[in-house]
Write a structure and sequence with these properties.
single chain; 226 residues; alpha+beta; 6 helices; 14% strand
Length: 226
């Protein structure tokens, strides 16, 4: 079945305003996850087994598992729906596998994303892409930081150096809307793709059913990147 064939886009559900995991974002993540899971399930070898160990087997290797994670308001790191979703294996040079975890936040219009990088057998990194804190706080802007523990510092994967700074630097993002933050995270892994084969543009063209949806998401990215 073609990716996205049974998940038609809701072209009106993203207005450019903050949303609490809009339906457009949910469907985009579901289609993106299908491509990532397809790539993951085609993998063989020792590195794949080590990735399972690094994430304590908390990997969504079935579409239905990814859908549950995307749609869940996770209760904590022990929640069985708290699974890391494989990302498409496109243009993450020198990084063996990439995974993401969407985290719905209690505040209206906010969501965060954990990004886990399995670099090789014993070396891993993680980042968190977060919306702005309150304006009077130190991180009162959308940002990305390194992490030692994921899922709000409640889950510790293997292979992440304990000496990493995990509060600073906090690199600013030109985004706070959950859709924009997700696209920022995905682009950081895949590249933009405007001048070479691959990148997030190719992924969007593959997983979105409608060319209008592709144009819409590329427009969101261009607004942030320019």
């Amino acid at each position: 079945m073609p990716l996205g064939a049974d998940l038609p886009c809701d072209r009106n559900s993203y207005s450019g305003k903050p949303s609490y995991m809009s339906q457009a974002l949910v469907e985009l993540m579901q289609r993106y996850a299908r491509r990532g899971i397809s790539d993951w399930n085609a993998e063989r070898g020792e590195a794949k087994g080590k990735a399972y160990i690094a994430l304590a087997n908390k990997i969504a290797d079935k579409v239905e598992d990814a859908d549950r994670t995307i749609n869940a308001s996770l209760k904590g790191a022990g929640d069985e729906r708290c699974l890391f979703i494989p990302m498409p294996m496109i243009n993450h040079d020198k990084i063996k596998y990439c995974f993401f975890l969407p985290i719905r936040m209690p505040e209206e219009g906010k969501a965060a994303f954990d990004l886990f990088l399995f670099v090789d057998g014993d070396n891993c990194l993680s980042f968190r892409f977060e919306p702005a804190d309150l304006p009077d706080r130190a991180h009162g802007y959308a940002h990305v930081q390194m992490s030692i523990k994921m899922f709000r510092k409640n889950f510790e994967a293997k292979g992440i150096p304990v000496w990493l700074p995990d509060s600073y630097p906090a690199f600013p993002l030109r985004a706070s809307d959950p859709l924009e933050i997700f696209l920022s995270m995905a682009t950081s892994i895949h590249g933009f793709g405007a001048r070479y084969t691959g990148g997030i543009i190719e992924i969007l063209r593959e997983v979105c059913k409608s060319p209008a949806d592709v144009d819409k998401y590329i427009g969101v990215l261009k607004k942030m990147l320019n």
